[in-house]
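Example for tutorial group B:
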Protein backbone atom coordinates (compact mmCIF):
# COMPACT_ATOMS: atom_id res chain seq x y z
CA UNK A 1 0.00 0.00 0.00
CA UNK A 2 0.92 3.66 -0.33
CA UNK A 3 -0.17 6.60 1.81
CA UNK A 4 -0.44 10.09 0.33
CA UNK A 5 -0.42 12.51 3.24
CA UNK A 6 -2.04 15.93 3.15
CA UNK A 7 -2.09 17.99 6.34
CA UNK A 8 -3.69 21.39 6.92
CA UNK A 9 -3.86 24.07 9.59
CA UNK A 10 -7.49 25.05 9.25
CA UNK A 11 -9.40 25.13 12.52
CA UNK A 12 -11.66 22.22 13.39
CA UNK A 13 -14.75 24.38 13.30
CA UNK A 14 -14.41 25.12 9.60
CA UNK A 15 -16.41 23.31 6.94
CA UNK A 16 -13.86 21.56 4.72
CA UNK A 17 -14.13 20.46 1.11
CA UNK A 18 -11.43 17.96 0.07
CA UNK A 19 -10.47 17.07 -3.49
CA UNK A 20 -7.62 14.98 -4.87
CA UNK A 21 -6.44 15.23 -8.47
CA UNK A 22 -3.84 13.46 -10.58
CA UNK A 23 -1.72 15.60 -12.89
CA UNK A 24 -0.85 13.86 -16.17
CA UNK A 25 0.56 14.89 -19.53
CA UNK A 26 -2.89 14.70 -21.12
CA UNK A 27 -4.47 16.84 -18.39
CA UNK A 28 -5.75 16.82 -14.81
CA UNK A 29 -8.23 14.18 -13.65
CA UNK A 30 -10.15 13.73 -10.39
CA UNK A 31 -9.05 11.01 -7.97
CA UNK A 32 -11.34 11.93 -5.06
CA UNK A 33 -14.32 14.17 -5.71
CA UNK A 34 -17.61 14.86 -3.99
CA UNK A 35 -16.93 12.36 -1.23
CA UNK A 36 -15.94 9.35 -3.38
CA UNK A 37 -13.03 7.92 -5.32
CA UNK A 38 -13.06 7.75 -9.12
CA UNK A 39 -11.24 5.89 -11.89
CA UNK A 40 -8.62 3.25 -11.06
CA UNK A 41 -8.71 4.01 -7.31
CA UNK A 42 -12.38 3.18 -6.90
CA UNK A 43 -12.69 0.19 -4.57
CA UNK A 44 -9.04 0.08 -3.47
CA UNK A 45 -8.48 3.43 -1.78
CA UNK A 46 -9.76 5.09 1.40
CA UNK A 47 -9.46 8.45 3.09
CA UNK A 48 -7.21 8.91 6.13
CA UNK A 49 -8.50 12.19 7.49
CA UNK A 50 -7.51 14.34 4.49
CA UNK A 51 -4.91 11.90 3.10
CA UNK A 52 -5.30 8.80 0.93
CA UNK A 53 -4.35 5.16 1.49
CA UNK A 54 -4.02 3.16 -1.75
CA UNK A 55 -4.05 -0.64 -1.55
CA UNK A 56 -2.40 -2.96 -4.08
CA UNK A 57 -0.51 -0.21 -5.89
CA UNK A 58 0.47 -0.79 -9.50
CA UNK A 59 2.81 0.89 -11.95
CA UNK A 60 -0.14 2.96 -13.25
CA UNK A 61 -0.48 4.62 -9.85
CA UNK A 62 2.87 6.39 -10.32
CA UNK A 63 2.50 10.09 -10.96
CA UNK A 64 1.96 13.54 -9.48
CA UNK A 65 -1.03 14.12 -7.17
CA UNK A 66 -2.51 17.35 -5.85
CA UNK A 67 -4.51 17.73 -2.65
CA UNK A 68 -6.88 20.72 -2.58
CA UNK A 69 -8.71 21.78 0.57
CA UNK A 70 -11.15 24.67 0.77
CA UNK A 71 -12.56 25.92 4.08
CA UNK A 72 -15.53 28.13 4.81
CA UNK A 73 -15.55 30.41 7.79
CA UNK A 74 -17.14 33.65 8.90
CA UNK A 75 -14.22 35.47 7.31
CA UNK A 76 -14.88 33.89 3.92
CA UNK A 77 -13.51 30.96 1.96
CA UNK A 78 -9.89 29.93 2.16
CA UNK A 79 -8.03 27.51 -0.12
CA UNK A 80 -4.89 25.45 0.35
CA UNK A 81 -3.18 22.86 -1.82
CA UNK A 82 -0.17 20.53 -1.80
CA UNK A 83 1.50 18.54 -4.57
CA UNK A 84 3.38 15.29 -4.14
CA UNK A 85 4.82 12.56 -6.38
CA UNK A 86 4.25 8.83 -6.00
CA UNK A 87 6.82 6.49 -7.57
CA UNK A 88 5.89 2.82 -7.64
CA UNK A 89 8.97 0.60 -7.79
CA UNK A 90 8.70 -2.44 -10.08
CA UNK A 91 11.23 -5.25 -10.50
CA UNK A 92 12.39 -5.90 -14.08
CA UNK A 93 10.86 -8.61 -16.25
CA UNK A 94 12.75 -11.00 -18.51
CA UNK A 95 14.36 -8.87 -21.23
CA UNK A 96 13.98 -9.54 -24.94
CA UNK A 97 17.36 -10.07 -26.62
CA UNK A 98 18.08 -9.95 -30.36
CA UNK A 99 21.32 -11.67 -31.39
CA UNK A 100 22.06 -12.48 -35.05
CA UNK A 101 22.81 -16.17 -35.55
CA UNK A 102 25.49 -15.42 -38.17
CA UNK A 103 27.58 -12.51 -39.42
CA UNK A 104 30.44 -11.80 -41.84
CA UNK A 105 33.78 -10.48 -40.65
CA UNK A 106 34.27 -6.76 -41.10
CA UNK A 107 30.54 -5.94 -41.02
CA UNK A 108 28.64 -3.84 -38.47
CA UNK A 109 26.64 -5.97 -36.02
CA UNK A 110 24.33 -4.75 -33.25
CA UNK A 111 22.86 -6.82 -30.42
CA UNK A 112 19.90 -5.41 -28.50
CA UNK A 113 18.36 -6.06 -25.08
CA UNK A 114 15.20 -4.44 -23.67
CA UNK A 115 12.54 -4.78 -20.98
CA UNK A 116 9.82 -2.18 -20.36
CA UNK A 117 8.20 -3.09 -17.04
CA UNK A 118 10.94 -2.14 -14.58
CA UNK A 119 10.63 1.08 -12.56
CA UNK A 120 13.04 2.80 -12.33
CA UNK A 121 14.25 1.86 -15.83
CA UNK A 122 16.66 -1.07 -15.95
CA UNK A 123 20.33 -1.04 -16.84
CA UNK A 124 21.76 -3.83 -18.98
CA UNK A 125 24.87 -5.99 -18.83
CA UNK A 126 25.97 -8.23 -21.71
CA UNK A 127 27.77 -11.55 -21.23
CA UNK A 128 29.81 -13.62 -23.69
CA UNK A 129 30.35 -17.30 -22.92
CA UNK A 130 29.20 -16.61 -19.35
CA UNK A 131 31.71 -13.78 -18.74
CA UNK A 132 30.58 -10.17 -18.23
CA UNK A 133 31.77 -7.86 -21.01
CA UNK A 134 33.74 -4.77 -20.05
CA UNK A 135 32.63 -1.27 -20.95
CA UNK A 136 34.75 0.64 -23.45
CA UNK A 137 36.38 3.21 -21.17
CA UNK A 138 39.74 4.89 -20.82
CA UNK A 139 40.88 2.58 -18.03
CA UNK A 140 43.98 0.47 -18.43
CA UNK A 141 41.92 -2.72 -17.94
CA UNK A 142 39.68 -1.86 -20.90
CA UNK A 143 42.64 -0.91 -23.10
CA UNK A 144 44.45 -4.14 -22.25
CA UNK A 145 41.36 -6.16 -23.18
CA UNK A 146 41.52 -4.80 -26.74
CA UNK A 147 37.76 -4.13 -26.80
CA UNK A 148 36.26 -4.04 -30.30
CA UNK A 149 32.70 -3.22 -29.27
CA UNK A 150 30.65 -0.50 -27.55
CA UNK A 151 28.22 -1.51 -24.81
CA UNK A 152 25.49 0.97 -23.78
CA UNK A 153 24.13 -0.04 -20.38
CA UNK A 154 21.27 2.46 -20.57
CA UNK A 155 19.85 1.40 -23.95
CA UNK A 156 20.97 -2.25 -23.81
CA UNK A 157 22.81 -2.24 -27.16
CA UNK A 158 26.07 -4.04 -27.90
CA UNK A 159 27.62 -2.66 -31.10
CA UNK A 160 30.47 -4.18 -33.13
CA UNK A 161 31.71 -1.68 -35.72
CA UNK A 162 33.88 -4.34 -37.40
CA UNK A 163 33.01 -7.78 -36.13
CA UNK A 164 35.75 -10.45 -36.19
CA UNK A 165 35.87 -14.25 -35.91
CA UNK A 166 36.98 -13.82 -32.30
CA UNK A 167 33.55 -12.38 -31.54
CA UNK A 168 31.93 -15.76 -32.19
CA UNK A 169 30.30 -17.03 -29.02
CA UNK A 170 27.21 -17.40 -26.87
CA UNK A 171 25.63 -14.14 -25.70
CA UNK A 172 22.96 -13.19 -23.18
CA UNK A 173 21.90 -10.00 -21.40
CA UNK A 174 20.94 -9.22 -17.79
CA UNK A 175 18.50 -6.45 -16.76
CA UNK A 176 18.54 -4.95 -13.26
CA UNK A 177 17.23 -1.80 -11.55
CA UNK A 178 17.95 -2.47 -7.87
CA UNK A 179 14.41 -3.71 -7.22
CA UNK A 180 13.97 -7.44 -6.78
CA UNK A 181 16.07 -9.95 -8.68
CA UNK A 182 17.83 -9.23 -11.97
CA UNK A 183 16.46 -11.00 -15.03
CA UNK A 184 18.29 -12.68 -17.92
CA UNK A 185 17.30 -13.53 -21.46
CA UNK A 186 18.06 -16.94 -22.98
CA UNK A 187 21.53 -17.66 -24.38
CA UNK A 188 21.93 -17.17 -28.14
CA UNK A 189 24.95 -18.06 -30.29
CA UNK A 190 26.47 -15.72 -32.89
CA UNK A 191 28.73 -17.30 -35.51
CA UNK A 192 31.14 -14.99 -37.35
CA UNK A 193 32.72 -16.31 -40.58
CA UNK A 194 35.05 -14.90 -43.22
CA UNK A 195 33.56 -13.71 -46.49
CA UNK A 196 33.63 -16.57 -49.07
CA UNK A 197 35.57 -14.70 -51.77
CA UNK A 198 36.20 -17.80 -53.89
CA UNK A 199 32.49 -18.62 -53.93
CA UNK A 200 31.60 -15.10 -55.03
CA UNK A 201 34.22 -15.20 -57.83
CA UNK A 202 32.90 -18.56 -59.01
CA UNK A 203 29.35 -17.20 -59.07
CA UNK A 204 30.44 -14.14 -61.07
CA UNK A 205 32.27 -16.36 -63.57
CA UNK A 206 29.19 -18.57 -64.02
CA UNK A 207 26.95 -15.53 -64.59
CA UNK A 208 29.45 -14.12 -67.11
CA UNK A 209 29.53 -17.43 -69.03
CA UNK A 210 25.73 -17.60 -69.13
CA UNK A 211 25.53 -14.05 -70.46
CA UNK A 212 28.21 -14.82 -73.08
CA UNK A 213 26.34 -17.92 -74.27
CA UNK A 214 23.11 -15.94 -74.51
CA UNK A 215 24.91 -13.32 -76.58
CA UNK A 216 26.35 -15.94 -78.93
CA UNK A 217 22.90 -17.50 -79.30
CA UNK A 218 21.35 -14.18 -80.29
CA UNK A 219 24.17 -13.51 -82.76
CA UNK A 220 23.78 -16.97 -84.34
CA UNK A 221 20.00 -16.57 -84.65
CA UNK A 222 20.40 -13.16 -86.27
CA UNK A 223 22.99 -14.58 -88.65
CA UNK A 224 20.58 -17.31 -89.74
CA UNK A 225 17.85 -14.75 -90.34
CA UNK A 226 15.44 -16.04 -87.69
CA UNK A 227 14.59 -12.50 -86.64
CA UNK A 228 13.76 -11.34 -90.26
CA UNK A 229 11.77 -14.38 -91.40
CA UNK A 230 8.50 -13.13 -89.96
CA UNK A 231 8.76 -9.69 -91.56
CA UNK A 232 9.51 -11.28 -95.01
CA UNK A 233 6.40 -13.44 -94.76
CA UNK A 234 4.35 -10.37 -93.90
CA UNK A 235 5.63 -8.47 -96.96
CA UNK A 236 4.71 -11.41 -99.21
CA UNK A 237 1.16 -11.55 -97.89
CA UNK A 238 0.65 -7.84 -98.43
CA UNK A 239 1.86 -8.15 -102.04
CA UNK A 240 -0.54 -10.96 -102.81
CA UNK A 241 -3.44 -9.04 -101.35
CA UNK A 242 -2.65 -6.04 -103.55
CA UNK A 243 -2.49 -8.22 -106.70
CA UNK A 244 -5.83 -9.81 -105.96
CA UNK A 245 -7.40 -6.38 -105.57
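The residue assignment follows.
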Amino acid sequence: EAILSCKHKFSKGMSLRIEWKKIQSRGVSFVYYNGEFTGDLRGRAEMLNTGIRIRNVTRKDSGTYRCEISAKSEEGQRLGEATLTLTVLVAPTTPVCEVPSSAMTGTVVELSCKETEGSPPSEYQWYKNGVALLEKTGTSTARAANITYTMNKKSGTLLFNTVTKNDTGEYFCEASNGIGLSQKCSVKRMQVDDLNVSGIIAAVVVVALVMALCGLGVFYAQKKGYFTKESSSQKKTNYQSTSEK
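Residues 80 and 240 are 109 Å apart (CA to CA). Compare this with the pattern of hydrophobic and polar residues in the output above.
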